[in-house]
Design a protein that fits this description.
The complex is a heterodimer of chains A (253) and B (409). Chain A is of the alpha/beta class and 253 residues long. Chain A is built from ten helices and twelve strands. In chain A, strands 6-9-10-3-11-12 form a six-stranded mixed β-sheet, with helices on both faces. Chain B has a ten-stranded mixed β-sheet with strand order 2-1-5-8-10-12-14-16-18-20, with helices on one face. At the A-B interface, helix 2, strand 7 and helix 3 of A face helix 5 and helix 6 of B. The complex binds adenosine-5'-triphosphate and magnesium ion (MG). Adenosine-5'-triphosphate binds next to helix 1 of chain A.
């Protein structure tokens, strides 16, 4: 589904990613862990196309219509229309634009790209209600401005609501678990799991094993100073939980 | 436009009028001639009227018929003013009266070069009276149109008797034409009466609109004014709200959307002349291209006006590097027990906001339009009449689409 080759990137001349290689296949769940500031969010934002980062080398190949295509030339909206979804570590507050409008506009853009008809407000609301229910979210969230005044946990739930509506092929969830209480974590994990299929893939960025108890990864990678320094299966996460990063980093320092 | 042109237009407006009105025109021309060309004063620091008038050509050679069909919306009480001629509706609800006087020598605005210019051209005066206790449910809509490039001086007076309630929308629409509108409006609000008043400018790219609006609010009366400068080469609006007695409340909401070389200048003055009066002001601008947006908000709290509360906010959103916003709050407080606040901000759309939209499949241009609309919505949401609010919402949205999608950053 996605193949990242030797990706290097910088911001304001400072190199942050220093040669990332990562392949994710359909149906897989990958977890990316690593100390603060190692480049996890940067990697996710670059896959989604954030303009602040300059890709200085390498490729990101992503499957579009059955063909692996280098997506570095596509703008962020085009990437989203092709099914790439980024769940933000820090969701943006957008005063003046209601959650309903935001969801409807993005849903319609993606439908239009896929050659599907737009949904009218009434049918879209029905569709929305079913997803709200899964996430145990109150309908009043639709009228409110996007993320404005939402609590930390509510913002994260709202990201997953967007994911549920847009039904992406590749989801990059950047610390979706942080800020969630124990019940909310279960609800969100349950939401993510219910969207999983043979045809899509998920990349989870997280610091904690807790999330991985609910969404079980096929692979776990450790990112450190812009490089993946270790990959393994789900047991690697357990090991990290127990021992921290020092034993891995020692060799890198 | 030189003084001879003004005299010529004034003479045209004289045709078929009474001697009294002709004399009125002449008097005002004389007063104007002493100050012509209009000099730059403090009030017009950012808006040199002379240069705008120099740009204006009075060319009536090309006439395009105006179709009124699109204005026949039965959810409004519609009054069309075409080429300066007011066409009243056949039927009006009980308690609502409209009168056209053809000898309109009333003083509707403070003396100034601008008022003399208006008064040298004024042809008639529309007076709207709403009887005591009458609630006019349907909004009144006054549309000023012109089928040729022309100079118009519309004048309107609305009087709400005690406890009357109404909503009034004045719209100037001159697409494709080069027009100059110099307008006056006077509002009288009696005890406990309430008026919501919108003044909407949708002008062609070479048209000018200058207006003076004066409102006097009595005991427990409420006057809410909305100045919406949507398009036009020049929109200069003067608004004065006089809060005369206890409980009087004034609101002023300004929205200006400017692009290319458009110039918007709003000057509002709120006089708290009595104790226990309140006011609220919010002005928002979205500026693109090389346009300019000026907001001057003056609040005067007179000596005996204790326990007054007044707030003023100005926010500007700049969409280009060359657009300019000027914000000038001016508070003069002569009483001691008052609550008065003001603030102004100027910002841009953040890349992170736009990226958030893009990451959900919404292209950047559309994202900017939605964000700009979100910014404008704070003003639109203050409109209380649901029919007007819905109408203005779509007008603002389509205006944003027209204007800002075209201009690259
Ligand atoms: N726009 C930016 N401007 C300057 N520096 C940046 C920018 N974005 C990221 N960085 C820097 O790049 C490095 C990697 O940041 P990133 O947010 O990707 O880390 P992270 O692995 O997600 O960390 P955390 O676990 O704390 O979320 C950090 O040192 C950060 O300060
Ligand atoms: Mg991060």
């Amino acid at each position: 589904m996605i193949e990242i080759k030797n990706l290097t990137a910088s911001v304001d001349g400072k190199e942050i990613l220093k040669g990332i290689n990562l392949t994710v296949k359909k149906g897989e769940v990958h977890a990316i862990m690593g100390p603060n500031g190692s480049g996890k969010s940067t990697l996710s934002k670059i896959i989604a196309g954030h303009p602040a980062y300059e890709v200085t080398g390498g490729e990101i190949n992503y499957e579009i219509n059955g063909k692996m295509t280098n997506i570095l030339e596509l703008d962020p909206a085009q990437r989203a229309q092709e099914g790439i979804f980024l769940g933000f570590q820090y969701p943006i507050e957008v005063p003046g634009v209601s959650n309903f409008t935001f969801l409807k506009e993005s849903f319609n853009e993606i439908c239009a790209h896929q050659g599907l008809d737009k949904m009218d407000d009434e049918n879209f609301l029905k569709h929305l209600r079913s997803k709200l229910k899964v996430l145990e979210m109150n309908e009043s969230f639709l009228e409110r401005s996007v993320n404005e005044g939402f609590s930390g946990g509510e913002k994260k739930k709202n990201e997953i609501l967007q994911m549920a509506i847009l039904n992406p092929r590749l989801s990059l969830l950047d610390e979706t678990d942080s800020g969630l209480d124990i019940d909310a974590l279960k609800i969100v994990a349950n939401g993510v799991n219910s969207l999983k299929s043979r045809f899509n893939a998920t990349i989870l960025v997280t610091h904690y094993q807790r999330l991985l108890d609910y969404i079980v990864p096929d692979y776990v990678h450790v990112l450190y100073k812009g490089k993946i320094i270790k990959s393994g299966d789900k047991s690697l996460a357990l090991e990290l939980e127990e021992k921290g990063y020092d034993w891995l980093i020692a060799g890198e320092k | 436009m030189d003084f001879e042109t003004i005299e010529k237009i004034s003479a045209q407006k004289d045709q078929g009028q009474t001697e009294t009105l002709k004399r009125f025109h002449r008097q005002n021309l004389d007063r104007l001639s002493q100050n012509w060309p209009i000099k730059k004063t403090e009030e017009y620091k950012f808006t040199g009227l002379k240069s705008f008038f120099d740009e204006f050509e009075n060319d009536q050679s090309s006439t395009k018929p105006v179709s009124l069909d699109s204005y026949l919306d039965h959810s409004f009480i519609t009054v069309v003013c075409l080429n300066g001629e007011v066409q009243l509706p056949v039927e009006l609800p009980l308690g609502l009266k409209m009168i056209i006087s053809s000898e309109p020598t009333d003083q509707l605005a403070p003396e100034s070069d601008l008022s003399h210019l208006h008064q040298a051209m004024r042809k008639n005066l529309l007076t709207i009276i709403i009887d005591k206790n009458t609630i006019v449910e349907k909004p009144i809509r006054l549309i000023y149109l012109s089928s040729t490039s022309s100079f118009e001086a519309p004048a309107m007076k609305i009087h709400l008797k005690s406890f009357a309630k109404a909503s009034l929308v004045e719209e100037i629409q001159t697409p494709e034409r080069r027009c100059c509108f110099v307008q006056q409006a006077m509002i009288e609000i009696e005890e406990g009466a309430k008026l919501e008043h919108l003044q909407v400018s949708k002008l062609g790219p070479t048209s000018l609109h200058l207006s003076q609006t004066t409102a006097n609010v009595s005991k427990h009366g409420t006057y809410s004014n909305f100045l919406l400068n949507l398009t036009g080469r020049l929109n200069r609006k003067n608004l004065e709200i006089n809060l005369l007695e206890a409980g009087a409340h004034g609101e002023s909401y300004n929205l200006y959307l400017t692009s290319s070389n458009e110039h918007s200048d709003m000057q509002t003055v709120i006089h708290h002349k009595a104790a226990d009066t309140t006011s609220n002001q919010l002005a928002k601008g979205i500026l693109d291209g090389e346009s300019k947006g000026i907001f001057t908000g003056k609040i005067f709290i007179h000596p005996k006006a204790q326990r007054v509360s007044s707030g003023q906010t100005n926010k500007n959103l700049l969409l280009s590097k060359k657009a300019q916003a000027h914000s000038q709050p001016q508070l003069e407080i002569f009483a001691d027990d008052v609550k008065c606040s003001h603030g102004s901000t100027t910002g841009q759309l953040s890349d992170d906001e736009i990226f958030y939209f893009e990451s959900r499949g919404i292209p950047a241009k559309k994202a900017k339009t939605l964000l700009a609309f979100g910014f404008a919505l704070e003003i639109v949401s203050k409109i209380t009449h649901p029919i007007i609010r819905k109408n203005i919402e779509s007008v603002v949205m389509s205006c944003l689409k027209d204007k800002f999608q075209l201009e690259a950053r």
